[in-house]
Structure formats: C-alpha cells, structure tokens
TrEMBL record:
<feature type="transmembrane region" description="Helical">
    <location>
        <begin position="43"/>
        <end position="61"/>
    </location>
</feature>
<feature type="transmembrane region" description="Helical">
    <location>
        <begin position="15"/>
        <end position="31"/>
    </location>
</feature>
<keyword id="KW-1133">Transmembrane helix</keyword>
<feature type="transmembrane region" description="Helical">
    <location>
        <begin position="73"/>
        <end position="93"/>
    </location>
</feature>
<protein>
    <submittedName>
        <fullName>Uncharacterized protein</fullName>
    </submittedName>
</protein>
<keyword id="KW-0812">Transmembrane</keyword>
<keyword id="KW-0472">Membrane</keyword>
C-alpha cells in the first residue's frame, strides 16, 4: 500500500520551500533581537526540522533514497509534523510572553 506521495511540480515545491525558509528566517531574526530563552528554543527546533522537511523533496528521495523511499517519505512526514508542532509551540510561548502582565512597582522597589 505505501505512504502517501505528494506529486507536486518542482516549481511548486520550490515556492513552498522559499516561503517556509523565509518565515523561519524572519522568526529567527525576531528571536535574535526580541526573544527570550522560552521562545528561542522552539524557534531553533523549528528551524532544524524545517530544513529537513523542505529539502527532502520528491526529486531528492528518488535520487538518493531509491530503495528506501517509504522510509524517506516517513522521515519527511515526521519532519513536517514536527515543524508544525514547533511552530504552534513558538506561537503559544510568544503569545504568553507578550501578554504577561508587568510586575507591580511596589514589588520591584521592595526587593
């Protein structure tokens, strides 16, 4: 039976890769200048898995993983799922960090 195959054209896969990598680069730039450790870790994991997910294209699988395409496809699916999961985690941690209430001033001066 096998795993599902995405028979996208090379042009479509290239556009998807460019968009994903630009989004990841913008997230990493944002984290470099405005991030905290609670949001930087999901961003780093997001970048690692997005590289795997975007460069395991159908052409790469056919060329380098001819005899184990089922396993390469499973690896790609897991990388895509992990990319999505870490993107959601990054969104949640960033949302929580931006919506934290500031420490009351009477607590700051009494320390």
């Amino acid at each position: 039976m096998g795993l599902p195959r995405w028979n996208l054209s090379d042009n479509t896969e290239r556009k998807i890769r460019i968009i994903i990598l630009i989004v990841v680069a913008l997230i990493l730039i944002y984290e470099k200048f405005c991030g905290m450790s609670s949001t930087q870790y999901p961003a780093m994991y997001l970048s690692v898995f997005s590289l795997i997910a975007t460069f395991m294209t159908n052409a790469v699988q056919r060329r380098y993983f001819t005899y184990v395409m089922e396993y390469a496809q499973a690896f790609r699916i897991v990388a895509i799922l992990m990319t999505g999961a870490f993107f959601v985690i990054w969104l949640l941690t960033t949302y929580e960090r931006l919506n934290e209430s500031a420490m009351p001033s009477h607590l700051i001066y009494n320390m």
